[in-house]
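Sample entry (203 residues):
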Amino acid sequence: MRNWEIKRRTRETDITLFLNLDGGGYTVETGCGFLNHMLELFAAHSGFGLKVECKGDTEVDFHHTVEDTGIVLGAAVKKTLGDKAGIERYADACIPMDEALIMCAADISGRGYLNFDVEFPAAKVFDGDDEITVKKVGLFDTELIEEFFAAFTREAGVTLHFKKLYGKNTHHIAEGVFKAFARVMKIACKVVGGGVPSSKGAL
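Predicted structure, serialized as tokens:
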């Protein structure tokens, strides 16, 4: 079974993550509602089993929680893939989310690289209610989405390219990004047989 549990604790976050590339349910609790939503989308559309529990310094902001969750997910992917023998390795997807259309391509190459050509119309997206005014408020910085993937690619040794072809709604664009990510990881991690998919014989 291609699964792994990892625990990572710093002064900023305390994270436990379990990943099963071959399936299972998912539960996510990071203390950040928007990140929970995105990771649930990732698990649902990749078919991976995923359990995430994070306690972070969200009283500061969501930066450390988002970045460190990306680090831990990347480490789990790298560990579960092992020597990468028999995997598909490459994948690409173009995913619509209402008016938004997002393209993503992946190479499980052993080399971490991110190209994130995605602009968001809004700097923040809804993550909760303002307790004083009881109004919907944008609390999640959309720039953190790129930070999540930068951390993931570095730790996982995966190359990812994202491009927004079009889109106007910030939430829809973010959903498209995570759904496209899920789809390419599902395909690229699939076991198709054979040896390590590289002319070098190692990844």
